[in-house]
Design goal:
- The structure is a single chain.
- By secondary structure, the chain is an alpha+beta fold.
- It has one domain.
- The chain is built from one helix and four strands; from the N terminus they run E-E-E-E-H.
- Strand 3 and strand 4 form a beta hairpin.
């Protein structure tokens, strides 16, 4: 289901429909005037939406997501 955020004032990393914090980027592309267009998905309510933001914000979010993946992989590699 694709849609627009019902709560555009919510932070980039929060679902616009349910307010969930597990939202993640699915695709990112360059928009006009140094902005990024991000397709994101919320696993809590299954909504997929598109948001625009400053390119710097998109870069920082993508770096944060990469760091989370790295940390989770390190935990898995460490084992029980």
């Amino acid at each position: 289901m694709a849609g627009r955020s019902r709560h555009p004032s919510k932070p980039l990393t929060r679902c616009g429909d349910c307010g969930g914090t597990l939202v993640y980027p699915v695709a990112v592309r360059t928009g006009n005037e140094g902005r990024a267009v991000i397709t994101r998905r919320c696993p809590e309510c299954q909504v997929v939406d598109i948001v625009t933001c400053e390119a710097v914000a998109a870069i920082l979010w993508l770096r944060r997501e990469a760091q989370i993946r790295t940390d989770l992989q390190a935990c898995l590699d460490a084992g029980p």
